[in-house]
Amino acid sequence: MAIVERLHSFSPGAGRVAPRATASGSAETITLNGRWRFRLVPTLADVTERFMDPEFDDGAWDSIDVPSAWQMAGLRDEDGRLLERGQARFGTPAYTNVIYPFAIDPPFVPDENPTGEYRLAFDVEPQGGGRWLVRFEGVDSMFTVWLNGVELGWSTGSRLPSEFDASAHLRAGRNVLAVRVHQWSAASYLEDQDMWWISGIFRSVSLVHRPDGGIDDHFVHVAFDHHDRSGTVRVETSAAAVVRIPELGVEAASGEAVRIAGVEPWTAETPRLYRAEITNEAETIQIQIGFRTVTVEDGRLLVNGRPIRLRGVNRHEWHPDTGRTLDIATMRRDIELMKRHNINAVRTSHYPPDTRFLDLCDELGLWVIDECDLETHGFGRVNWKRNPSDDPRWREAFLDRMRRMVERDKNHPSIILWSLGNEAGFGQNLSATAAWAHARDPDRLVHYEGDHNASAVDVHSQMYTSPDELRRYGAGIEDVTTDATHDRHRRKLPLILCEYAHAMGNGPGGLREYEELFDRYPRLAGGFVWEWIDHGIRQLRDTEPHRSTEFFAYGGDFGEQLHDGVFIIDGLVFPDRTPSPGLIEYAAVITPVRVTIGEDGIRVENRHDFIDTAGYTFEWSIEAAGCAVSSGVLDVPPVPARSEADLPLPAEVDGAATPDAWITVRVHTATASPAVPAGHQVGAAQRRLTPAAAPVRATRRPVEQHGTGWRLGSALFDRAGGLRSMGGISARPVEIDLWRAPTDNDLNRARGQASCWREAGFDRLRHRVESVEMLDDELLVTTVTAPAGGDLGFRSRAGWAWSDKGLILDFRAEPFGQFRTALNADAARLARATPSTIPRLGVRLWLDLPSDSEIRWLGLGPGEAYPDTTSGAVHGLHTSRVAAMQTPYVRPQENGRRADVTWIEITDGARALHVQADRPLGATVRPWSAEQLTAATHTPGLLEEGGLWLHLDLGQYGIGSAACGPDAFEPYRLGPRAFDLRLRFRM
Ligand code: IPT
């Protein structure tokens, strides 16, 4: 078949051996990973005619690491050093979410089809008879393989393995493997996942020996009977063999079902694996067996007879330097981070991961939805016309993908659901794959979100459902499906949110609201936050002569004509895997051991599904105004899974008389497990015991004239009543502050608020001092603040006084004008416009303090917190530095706010400014202005301006999930209102 025909073929490949389980054992496997010769050509017309010939001279070619994606490898020089931005050796990554970067004309793809030609010369001494296979774990998107000049076959299915029989052509001594990989092929229509388009041999390649009579394939069928706690195992093999589980004294023939009394079951909480081997004369393979049974009963998702709650994430494979090529340390790191943040489930969105990741899920304990490498989302743009999912010509390709996933991964106890893919509409090919999976593996459940009627699946799945709608599903009062039979079936199914809470930029907010529903309704089996990691690409940008700054690139940064910008940056961890505040929040909301401190006692809820709380310690402490008062350890009898216990409060609670006293209970792991160390905090709870101290009585001193302005103690004001310095620290006048640099949620065109805020003009406030009055002991300044081009705003009155307790500011403000979302509008538009929300309500001032100042505050911390993201923060005395308080969102946006702050202190060692508020405020300190934060598109765009901005707010608009989901929920929306505020500055 000519290349062109093959590229435009509905067929998934040819010449491949039947898919089979991943296995390791006595048979030899030789890695072919390493440095290969490589040449990239831009179009099919440029391919190298005889490059597969063993004698072909590739001396002038480039070289590349296998595995790697060529676009990612090409961002570095031959020695692995990052090239400057704009330079690349092998094409560049391109990002689109839904839209295909080629015309929708299936099965055709453009002539402009970057093609990588790879050559590897290697020496082997094949021994022992049998067959030799060349195994590719993943090649994107279509490739043909030649060994010693002879074609072995071709394949598609980028995130799936392909094996070719090389036996007839493998020689003792030198061999040459040649592979031609095309970026685009008919199969690209099936791989429209929301991720970077990158290509090449991006997973390992090996030469695998298959001895005659060897165990080519095996299928471990397991069950756990929760009534008598026995396990059953039956191992099907492709050749007769003996199965041994030494620890259980089991020795059985392949195919024989063995029931074993008293086994320990596998769960994500107790990932108990039994070592076993399957052996015959030809070979021995080592396996790990986990006993567990997955069922749906009474609309609940059960494992081993008990309901489970999925506290999950969607995980793409990503590394900022290597793309979708991950090393084992990175995979392990992902799981450690997940488990240390209370996550217990992964959906492998949207393709089967490197198999080693699944081994780690088995070993460390995570529930897995293994998802097929299938997405045809781009057809949505043409009303799903010609969608492959319902076109019989693609049927074999669909089945091929599902088969290759299930056959490869069928022995992982961690996998409880097979997912048919993502966002591929619905149609006969998906029904066929579901039917095939049910027949091949009756012991697991089938998932696919796009099957809205749940006609082919065993769990109902949705994405980005609002809490209101979710509540209806929980209560079983959801709308009927179009078909009565499907409706009856669907009503019996548990519901999961395979995606919710879009973690783009600052956020997600509103996680608690979902958690409450998951808690309340047994039918709701939990959900998976979208998504685990920001797919940023590490780049260097020249910021100054001889200085380059690293940053993370996103869509459009490689000059793509078509791209979806920053939508690729929507993870709970930053590209370098630093946890973002969203992950801290999620960990707190989903804590498996929830403590609630009431007036009369402490409630411990064990939200695990299987284990009791014996493995946790519960420490309490009482602090008053941030200072330790007393502490101890709670005596908590082991609380069984899914139950709760009530305990008395520590006796010391009664004695707490000092103002602003709080009790905190922290839950830690008592012992280490493979992914989580001992002493790791899994949750915390707090309760205020005594009110904050009454405001101090201050004796005011007279205001003095000073030059053309005024002096109030150590504070100087200009003639317009504007603050100029305090205690030797230069300052700028206090201003009303309504703006925040829009978050990615704010910027969503359909549900976000930023466009209204901009239309209203909150980003361009102008201030006009109306009057300055000198009273005996107060300097009174009234100001009108309104946006350029607008006639609404705030009138404020700042009363400044000097006292024995420092500089006092009494600030009052009142809104005026029509706060409507449509400003400058005609009457009709105005009538339709809803009352405006505002991003922030507060004040800001600039201080001449250095950017390495130390910050202390009493309030929530240590991390940032917004109205609907406060779960991960605790009240107390916190210390940090300016730089550490900036959250490095890949696209700069509002960040770094500390909530419920009653005082904050900024010090450079020599000078200190202490600001005390009469009520808890949001406090943000930045070395750059909100204007700069708003304008920056990447982190190197944020430049220290000299001095610090201090923002204090009485409220901010919630964070929500509007980038792909609901906006901030009602209680977290902020509108304009009159406010007053008293601040006391001490220097
Ligand atoms: C949903 C996709 O499944 C996921 O891959 C990702 O693109 C996410 O959106 C947004 O980041 S689909 C969307 C129509 C809700």
From TrEMBL:
UniProt keyword list: Glycosidase, Hydrolase
UniProt region (Disordered), positions on chain: 685-705
Record domain Beta galactosidase small chain/: where: 711-986
PROSITE patterns hit by this protein: GLYCOSYL_HYDROL_F2_1, GLYCOSYL_HYDROL_F2_2
Gene Ontology MF: a single term: hydrolase activity
Enzyme class: hydrolase
Superkingdom of the organism of origin: Bacteria
Reaction catalyzed: Hydrolysis of terminal non-reducing beta-D-galactose residues in beta-D-galactosides
Coiled coil location: none
Pfam families named among the record's database cross-references: Bgal_small_N, Glyco_hydro_2_C, Glyco_hydro_2_N, LacZ_4
EC annotation from Swiss-Prot or TrEMBL: 3.2.1.23
Compositionally biased region (Low complexity): 687-697
InterPro entries noted in UniProt: B-gal_small/dom_5 (IPR004199), Bact_Beta-galactosidase (IPR050347), Beta-gal/glucu_dom_sf (IPR036156), Gal_mutarotase_sf_dom (IPR011013), Galactose-bd-like_sf (IPR008979), GH (IPR017853), GH-type_carb-bd (IPR014718), Glyco_hydro_2 (IPR006101)
Family: Belongs to the glycosyl hydrolase 2 family.
PANTHER family per UniProt: BETA-GALACTOSIDASE
Protein name: Beta-galactosidase
UniProt organism field: Plantactinospora solaniradicis
Phylogenetic placement of the source organism: Bacteria, Bacillati, Actinomycetota, Actinomycetes, Micromonosporales
